[in-house]
């Protein structure tokens, strides 16, 4: 046995518990805090996909891709004459960016924005496939996909690796702007 393989086998008992810690259990409700943390491997009612499956869905062109990365608001204490520039978002080409809809609790106006954005992306067809993503280890996409299931969407995909996993495979991205209110 080669030395490298022997070292790997010796480390397996140490590394195995770390791998188990890296995934969170699926909660009954929405994640309400610590949105950048290990996510579950599952989402009841949805299909979990990796970057390769997501890319195949993207190429087929029959699934609405929904980016739910939050967008920081302009700080309220900035002087009025201060120039504020939103951080640019590189996303999956053709995706609809619906920022701030993935929090555990959302205001009625945000829920309406989310429903309207989904309706526009799916032509108000609850059977139209939708795929949710954000960044890797981001609960925002998990919450948004779960919420879409609650709205009655029938074919929901979740990409837990988000744009981090997408770009790791060297798939294309484009700069997107949030869908207007």
From TrEMBL:
<feature type="signal peptide">
    <location>
        <begin position="1"/>
        <end position="22"/>
    </location>
</feature>
<dbReference type="InterPro" id="IPR022376">
    <property type="entry name" value="PQQ_CXXCW"/>
</dbReference>
<feature type="domain" description="Rhodanese">
    <location>
        <begin position="92"/>
        <end position="175"/>
    </location>
</feature>
<protein>
    <submittedName>
        <fullName>PQQ-dependent catabolism-associated CXXCW motif protein</fullName>
    </submittedName>
</protein>
<dbReference type="InterPro" id="IPR001763">
    <property type="entry name" value="Rhodanese-like_dom"/>
</dbReference>
<dbReference type="InterPro" id="IPR036873">
    <property type="entry name" value="Rhodanese-like_dom_sf"/>
</dbReference>
<keyword id="KW-0732">Signal</keyword>
